[in-house]
Task: structure prediction
Amino acid sequence: MVASFGNVALFGIIPFLPVSSETKAGIAVIGWAMSWLLFVIGSLLAGHEGYSYLKQLFRRWIPKA
Result:
């Protein structure tokens, strides 16, 4: 839970970091990926309901051939 809130705070301070725009963009992408990873881990930790939700979500994203 702490990592999730830390990730939200990260997005708030990115514009004020004394680094180049490329580095800020890289930090934002890493934060975005980390937020999705934490979402997936949390959903899996929720048990069968979380797994079912993720399965439904991914089926919606990936069309059948």
Observations:
- Residues 21-45 form the longest helix (25 residues).
- The chain has one domain: 2-61.
